[in-house]
Design brief:
The chain is an alpha+beta fold. The chain folds into three domains: 236 residues, no CATH class; 40 residues, no CATH class; 127 residues, no CATH class. It is 30% helix and 26% strand. A hairpin with a 2-residue loop joins β13 and β14. The two termini are 49 Å apart.
């Protein structure tokens, strides 16, 4: 079946169908697609593809383990692989795990500037039963449809043509060259008010590209209607040049959402470039970065007025290398994800981790010792060993509330492990019910 969709969660395993029935627990894909992906993993060191998945060998089968990138991977057969956030593996909502995982991803993508226009009203949520690629296509087409309803913007474009009626300015060089005999014609230069402008060409090109992947009936119907509305607009011959020429004039801001999607679809703003023999860029998002951006945007909007949030702070180094004779240099930048400040004073360091932890686990709650070393260094350098440290993890069925108590590096430096609720109506960090944590803000954060 052309353009079939295979769904797998983060850190899931892909297996070739050539192994037959001995693949329980793995996601099976056609052998040709498996070999294509495996070859790219083993031969492309600089493309970034080996960040996406890694070859491994388990239970007598060659496998590919997907890493922490989510989105859509295209393969030469015309199929595509849908990679969903791992939080969908243990959903307790009434939705299927696939629908919940897609909703989680779309909610978080809104925190990225170019995807702030993603709509998640009740109508849009009905599309979550579709594969992720169809959801992206649906969002893009809805943005283009909004433009069409308001009317395509036109622009004056210089035209040169040999006409039967004089129009504009007569081009004497062309007239003498082409019309010495045909004196009834006029070789003219003139301006024409047409829809053929760079932004319209780019949208038309993006629609033609998704036409080859779209299989949902509603999307196909809308796409045909939109292409008819763009009938007078030619395809872009040089997308890079057209993107550089785009000028969203006054009254054209409604073009921005569709243009952002076009940049992604045409590969000009892909989160990670994965172009290969398939000839199509994969639409992939690193979940660590997406989660960090989402938490930062949410917390910033919920902070009390007196407080501010900084992201990716990098003012401190781990060590100073003394070379003698008064010469020294600082090494190893410490870069916490988030920093809360009040009046310029650093009061709390937060780090986001896109991982699942288990409060019931007997193995240190599945927490990473390396993460604790990292937080200890942040506390020493940014808080001078006095203050509050917080590790933020996504809320899951097993991790509904903060880990009981706190972790003390010393009497004055303490760390809390908190869940972050991701929801379309309201997302927020979940604080301890006993009021033991106020982010160093005298309880002002308790109502988040």
């Amino acid at each position: 079946m052309p353009n079939a969709t295979t769904t797998v969660f983060e850190f899931g395993y892909l297996c070739s169908d050539s192994y037959g029935a001995d693949v329980e627990g793995y996601t099976v894909i056609p052998d040709a697609d498996f070999c294509y992906l495996e070859k790219r993993c083993l031969t492309e060191d600089n493309s970034g593809f080996n960040q996406l998945m890694k070859p491994c060998f388990k239970r007598g089968s060659r496998l590919l383990q997907v890493q922490n990138y989510v989105g859509v991977i295209f393969v030469p057969s015309g199929h595509h692989i849908e990679v969903l956030p791992k939080t969908g593996l243990d959903s307790d909502s009434g939705e299927t795990t696939y629908e919940q995982a897609r909703a989680t991803l779309l909610i978080m993508l809104q925190a990225l500037g170019e995807f702030r226009h993603i709509q998640l009203d009740n109508t849009a949520l009905n599309t979550l039963k579709m594969p992720l690629l169809e959801v992206f296509i649906s969002q893009f087409l809805d943005c283009v449809n909004h433009i069409v309803k308001r009317g395509l913007k036109r622009d004056y474009v210089r035209q040169i043509d040999n006409l039967l009626v004089k129009k504009g300015k007569l081009n004497m060089v062309g007239q003498l060259r082409y019309n010495t005999v045909a004196k009834h014609r006029f070789y003219c230069e003139f301006d024409e008010y047409v829809e053929n402008r760079p932004v319209n060409r780019l949208l038309k090109t993006a629609m033609l590209k998704v036409q080859g992947y779209c299989r949902n009936h509603s999307n196909q119907k809308l796409l045909r209607e939109l292409l008819f509305a763009f009938d007078a607009v030619p395809k872009s011959q040089n997308t890079k040049q057209d993107f550089g020429s785009v000028q969203l004039d006054r009254g054209m801001q409604h073009y921005q959402p569709a243009l952002s999607w076009a940049k992604l679809i045409l590969g000009d703003a892909s989160p990670i470039s994965m172009k290969g023999d398939a000839g199509a860029p994969s639409l992939l998002f690193p979940m660590e970065s997406v989660f960090e951006s989402f938490v930062a945007k949410t917390l910033r909007s919920q902070l009390p007025t007196a407080y501010s949030l900084r992201t990716q702070v990098k003012t401190e180094k781990l060590v100073t290398h003394h070379l003698g004779a008064g010469e020294q240099r600082d090494l190893f930048t410490l870069k916490p994800d988030l920093m809360i400040e009040k009046g310029g004073e650093q009061v709390c360091v937060l780090d986001t981790k896109w991982k699942r932890i288990n409060p019931e686990s007997t193995d240190k709650f599945d927490l990473s010792q390396a993460d604790f070393y990292q937080m200890f260094a942040y506390g020493q350098k940014y808080l001078e060993a006095k203050g509050t440290l917080i590790l933020i993890y996504p809320q899951t069925v097993s991790f509904q509330k903060p880990l009981e108590g706190h972790f003390a590096f010393s009497e004055s430096l303490r760390l809390w492990v908190l869940p972050f609720k991701i929801d379309k109506s309201k997302s927020y960090i979940i604080l301890p019910e006993d009021g033991s944590l106020s982010f160093g803000c005298d309880g002002a954060y308790q109502n988040l």
